[in-house]
Amino acid sequence: YPPERVRNFSIIAHVDHGKSTLADRLLELTGTIKKGHGQPQYLDKLQVERERGITVKAQTATMFYRHANNQLPASDQPDAPSYLLNLIDTPGHVDFSYEVSRSLAACQGALLVVDAAQGVQAQTIANFYLAFESNLSIIPVINKIDQPTADPDNVKAQLKRLFDIDPSEALLTSAKTGQGLSQVLPAVIERIPSPPGKCDSPVRMLLLDSYYDEYKGVICHVAVVDGALHKGDKIASAATGRTYEVLDVGIMHPELTPTGVLYTGQVGYVISGMRSTKEARIGDTLHQAKSIVEPLPGFKPARHMVFSGLYPADGSDFDALSHAIEKLTCNDASVSVTKETSTALGMGFSKVQVENPAALASNPGKRIAACWEPTVIATIIIPKRRGEQQEYTFIDAQRALLKYRLPLREIIVDFYNELKSITSGYATFDYEDSEYQQSDLVKMDILLNGQPVDAMATIVHNQKAQRVGRELVDKLKKFIERQMFEITIQAAVGSKVIARETLSAMRKNVLAKCYGGDITRKKKLLEKQKEGKKRMKRVGSVDIPQEAFHELLKVS
Ligand code: GDP
Ligand code: MG
Q: In this predicted complex, what is the ipTM?
């Protein structure tokens, strides 16, 4: 297959608009997978995706399709030229735009799927711009036209208004009933350019993804940009300079299918004796060994979307946790990890960029001139209410689009859930990183019997400190059980205590109910009490249940 007969494309959509279902139909239509193969949404491979119903890790499949004249069905044209189509599946969820842009790097076009009833949503907009900035040809697909509430004309008008897409370009489909699906692949072939690239240059390819297979070792997904890659070739990594011999090369059809060669513009897999996925850096350029090539642009660095601090419940499990995290980071370049230590929780890991509040002095005094905090540009689409609201952009008569600059921390805790609940689920949300802005931030310490608990320290806006301190202290009072001595719970900014509660002492005598002298029963009860204590974290002499830590994270 010369580049003229190769097309590389992705499907992008707001979550639930039908991307995975459409991908499955296209794989069936081309005979790549059997119809009713019993595994819905073939491309959603990972277990986590099945459980949550979202596509997390991009998967790729190669299909073959005969196409000469889109007026006639392919079956009537046995001599029609065959095309090699690479469908690069992208995750549709807002949290994974890093993977979306990664997938798009190997594409020349994208199907932009929009639900005919729901219309353009926040991630439709985000994904459109990712594709647009990558100079991809965009084919609008208005899906789910079988739904009784489908309004394709309204969606066409939205696409025109928001993206300047000509309404005549839109394909109308139902991935459920099959209606309109026969137009999709002809449009891919006719409207998406073939991959650029120099066929007779030394081989140069982009490393799209990698994973470890127990039997085959490290498997790299690559897009061959220039030249051809043959089994037996010697290749080198631009990032590490290491060289490898190509042991196996082929396509995902959809399972690994050896072909012995990948030509310019093709997407497939390479096995080259790498020992760990750490050697297969996603976004790296692999090229013919001993030739000097310019590395490909790679990808935008991962944008961190999910932040968490991880600690083993039992300190002796630290090595096991460490091992598990290492495995995860091996397979996923978008996760980064740093070690951290908390006096309350022992040793643990933070998944990057979470600045430990402990690092900020409680009494910065004159040493810190200013605090800066990260902000985001948030795009929110909400059902329109009555009234004059001139600062909105209207998508159509029913919905408005709002753009705000918000501090990042405002959206980390529960923002999405709250937005959904106040709009009865109708609002959609997306955001992109923006600059740092100067902010009046202070560190708030939580003290138990006068001792600061560093896992509970938070950084808050000065104006919110009073309210947050009060909430934290109230929550803690609920979750910490009374103990055999009095406990004072305080929230403090610097040396100033802004909220305080006291838990009075109580002796919790588990033996009180035991009459007589049954020593084994007494022992059992004492054992049980000990077990319960294991689930507590002991700070100084105060036991703090796990739930208290979880609850505290919800206050901001
Ligand atoms: P994704 O999140 O974009 O990958 O969406 P899915 O492919 O998982 O589809 C979301 C839901 O919409 C599933 O329940 C599908 O069965 C359903 N769905 C997909 N396409 C259609 C369609 O054309 N018509 C109808 N009525 N439902 C569809
Ligand atoms: Mg999906």
A: 0.99
